[in-house]
Amino acid sequence: MTRNVLFLCTGNSARSILAEVLLDSLGGGRFKGYSAGSYPRGQVNPFALRLLAQRGLPTLGLRSKSWDEFARSGAPVMDFVFTVCDQAAGEVCPVWPGQPVTAHWGIPDPAAVTGSDATIAVAFVDALRMLERRVSLFVSLPIGALDRMALTREVERIGREPPPAHSEENPA
Hints:
globular, Rossmann fold, 4 strands, about 170 residues
């Protein structure tokens, strides 16, 4: 059984896109990742696309889209919905109605970072590392063996995982 997971953010140009691709890559066919935004930017951030390509992850077909697409009749039914916006930065996180298991996995927005291309690229690497850690923990959960309450506790715990140490690697 493949479980559908929707990653929501405000702009759907960076964090939620990265999470979607990571889940598809790490999920071993057990999960299908989707992403959307409450106010989509209309294009995927070029730094996100470049980083995914550098890591050998697929970028074909990625697009910034509204969460309205997933609320329509005929849209895939979501088993999980995770918000990845950063409430600490004062972003408004979308709320998803319905019955999926939900959690907040706040990640600082690398698309909001200013400065040199190298500085911005490091912010994207950091966001990818944090998301990769959380997605890895999520896909390792014994989902079929947990009841809804236990599953909710576990995905919320994953969202509280501390961020990895700041990256000093040159992502270029």
